[in-house]
Amino acid sequence: MNDACSPSLRKALVYCTDAAMLPFALFSAHAAIACNPGRDFDVLICSDVPLTIPAPLAALGIESRVLSLPEGFSEHTTPGYRNLPAVAFMRLWLASALGGAYDRILYLDADTKVLSRALDRLLSLDIGPHPIAAVRDVIQWRHSTTDKPIYDFAERGITATRYLNSGVLLIDTRTFNEQQCLERMLHTHAMLGPFFYHDQSLLNLTLQDQWAELSPVWNWHGIDLYPFLRKYADPEVLHFTAKPRPWEFSANSPLYF
What are phi and psi of 171, to 5 degrees? Predict the structure, then answer.
């Protein structure tokens, strides 16, 4: 008997990745399972092509899922987005593609490490009428919104102040779909795109302040400060958002960001 979850579960931890980032997504997924042995959520690796999950990890319940994206998907993501692959934007389609199977989705970027033993609690969190919950981007940890306005907001005269980081998203699929968030994002892209911070700004410009804010511990960017801040907070999810990352180790830069 393995640790795989029942297909009847209505919650899922989801990664969207291509073959190049698959090993890192699997590392994060494995850590999530190890930290949550009694989990009540499925673990999915989503892509636009089939990806092979190594047998030992598949035995733990990590499942590969190919999502059928609408024809012309790439037209909404390129050109103008720093040559990012279409799979990088797949998170925007998760509620539409998986909403029939899951009420709640926790999306994580592949460059994360899960430390939390309470992912089931996060997946059940009351986020009120909001379609998503997220953590403010690290730029707003270090600067006030008046000192350093968000570029994609300022360029378009947007007065919203909070700016989420899209690397960790708690999605209520029913609310997301009922509020037509995907359709609104595609409209935003058509009217205002492209964006300097690509799909992250697309989410922010569409939802603006209509999202629930999570504690920074759920998307912890300050990896270099981690040892010094442990007495104040215990990060639940580490997010390696800048260079060097653990797989880019340099003897001259021993700190990971």
Answer: -115, 125
